[in-house]
Amino acid sequence: MVTARLGGYSLQSRLLVAVTVLLTVFLGLTGAVLDRAFRNSLETGVAEQLQVQIYVLLAAVDEADGNFYFSENLREPRFSQLNSNLYGFISSASEGELLRTSSALDIDYETLGLNHDLAIGETRFGRLRTKAGTEFFVTSYAVTWENRLSPILFSVLESTDTIEAEASNFRNSLWSWLGGLAVLLLILQILLLRWGLAPLRRLARDLKKIESGQSETLDPSYPRELSAVTQNLNLLIQSERKQQSRYRTTLADLAHSLKTPLAVIQGELGSHTSDINQASLVQEQLDRMNQIISYQLQRAVSTGDTGTLARQVNVASVVAKVARTLEKVYADKAVVIKRDIDTELNFLGDERDLLEMLGNLMDNACKYGRGMVAVSASLASTMPPRMSLRVEDNGTGISVPDRERVLQRGVRLDTLAQGQGIGLAVVVDIATSYGASVSVTDSPMGGASIILEFDNIRIAD
Amino acid sequence: MRLLVVEDESLLRQQLKSGLERAGYVVDDAADGVIGLYQATEYEYDAAIIDLGLPKLDGISVIRQLREAGKRFPVLILTARGDWQDKVAGLDAGADDYVVKPFRLEEIQARLNALLRRAAGFASPTITCGPVQLDTSAKRVSVHGANVELTAYEYKTLEYLMLHPDQVISKAELTEHLYAQDYDRDSNVLEVFVRRLRQKLDPEQTLQPIETVRGQGYRMRAPD
């Protein structure tokens, strides 16, 4: 598919994306902060422990003849176990290593690289990475030792492995909890969104009902935030309908008030035929006036209304209505009107417009045909829906040079040949206002075949 | 033939009335829907011409109500707008044909003729009753193919009888459908017309197409 426009995303997906981003940021930051705090508290604990071990070492060390030794057993048993993860060193910058606990027998002093630049009495806690790659927490304490010039450094080391394992355990369980929480919150959020947006979905459904003619107005029971919109929509729909019906009433009045005097003049003309020339002149002008009025009035019927609130009209039922009428009118001619209409086809627009087009086309077919008329409507394509509507007869047809002329839109009425009706011109005008195409061909039945193709089609459910 | 014209525009109504009367119809008129409906249901008409845009009661309601009242005579509607919504609604309500204003009187007459003939059950404009042939569109009568010259009233009398073959038509009914209301019903004009008709159609007195049913009226004999 093509990239969706920003306005094309649904409210639900917008809110979902926003909430997901928010949740990710919030839970991510929370996790990072908690992780950091836990690690800090672990390290503080280690620092305190190592400080205690320094004192343990200090208490047990003595010197004789320049050699350091443990004067008593160390109170911390881990100092006595080989590779126990707790190691003690006594060293000086000038002499290097002076003494180590038995736990540290396997450790290469040189790779440790202990830092000796501490001031006397200073304790320092930190991390230390050996050249071999092992990492230790280390606490060092510098003291002056009786007759020695350089300060003696007491160091206690503990491998970071235990702490790291503990921290990573904590981190794993922290993130799995937070992840679970995120999923739960998202599900809750989706449910809340569905509930919160339900009135909007209902509005869409209601509008569809108005469009299909199942209801006249929107239900008044909408939430407060929407009711302002729905009330205004209702007013708009009503005023549009009122406007349309007022427009039509005005037209009907106009037609009545114009055509009735014309009928009177026509009648007078019929009864006073003393001067034949004069009468035919008046008659000619009368016919022209009548044609112009009829054309403009019938054209004005068309609203070309295919907006979202357009009603839909079943094509088959309108064709049936017109056929019923024409079969009565042309009873003498015993016209047979064959209908082949897909009953699922609905015309999006005004019923009057469809009636006007079908009425004129089918009337012409009855008038100019030799008793056989065929009306068919079918889907020309499904995506997008396009209807092909065809009216055929078995008359003499329309000659090729005439076709172009009869299909011209807004044809000037004073250029119409004598006896040529305004019917087809009206059809072309209305069809064009709906964006339809009109074409004329020969019918296999022998006469003319008029084809209209409409896009404003909906297929019934 | 007795017609009802319901039209609110008085000039047009008068024109229709006088034009149709000149053509030999008996015409009653009404200026609004209520009076029109009253007349249509109270009196016997052969056909009605009803304008759709009537005051008080619109034409479509008039037609629907008179059909509901069981009136079967043909109805021709007059429509000013001439749009298909009006035509379809009018014919669905029970009218039989439409004429769009403005119209020529000849058009109305042609439509009326066709409607009257169809209502009597004849599909073609020529009605045949044995050797007697009546062309309703040309208003000509022939017997065994030879033209017979009739006066307008003689023609009307024969047409009415031929449109109701094998039915006994009372003198009262004939009078009512052929002559204006204020005509003196006790006169013997009808007998004179029928006698003259018989002489013109059947000078030898061999065919005897018009029977007299004693005490009841006349009957056009359909061929066996």
TrEMBL record, chain A:
Q: Which residues form the HAMP domain?
A: 194-245
Q: What class of enzyme is it?
A: transferase
Please write the reaction equations for the catalytic activity of this protein. ATP + protein L-histidine = ADP + protein N-phospho-L-histidine
Q: Which residue numbers delimit the Histidine kinase domain?
A: 253-458
Q: Which residues form a coiled coil?
A: none
GO cellular component, as recorded: plasma membrane
Gene3D superfamilies from the entry? 1.10.287.130, Histidine kinase-like ATPase, C-terminal domain
- Give its localization: Membrane
Transmembrane segment boundaries: 15-34, 174-197
Q: Does the keyword Transmembrane helix apply?
A: yes
In Swiss-Prot or TrEMBL terms, this protein is called histidine kinase
Species per Swiss-Prot/TrEMBL record: Pseudohongiella acticola
TrEMBL record, chain B:
One BP annotation, GO: regulation of DNA-templated transcription
Tell me yes or no: is DNA-binding among this UniProt entry's keywords.
yes
User: Ranges for the OmpR/PhoB-type domain?
Assistant: 124-222
Q: Which residues carry this modification: 4-aspartylphosphate?
A: D51
Q: Return the Pfam families for the record.
A: Response_reg (PF00072), Trans_reg_C (PF00486)
Say which domain of life the source belongs to. Answer: Bacteria
Please list the residue ranges the record marks as binding DNA.
Answer: 124-222
Taking every annotated instance into account, which residue ranges of this chain make up the domain Response regulatory?
2-116
Keyword terms, alphabetized: DNA-binding, Phosphoprotein, Transcription, Transcription regulation, Two-component regulatory system
Gene Ontology CC? cytosol; protein-DNA complex
A molecular function annotated in GO for this UniProt entry is:
transcription cis-regulatory region binding
- Name of the featured protein: DNA-binding response regulator
What is the source species?
Pseudohongiella acticola
State the taxonomy lineage.
Answer: Bacteria, Pseudomonadati, Pseudomonadota, Gammaproteobacteria, Pseudomonadales
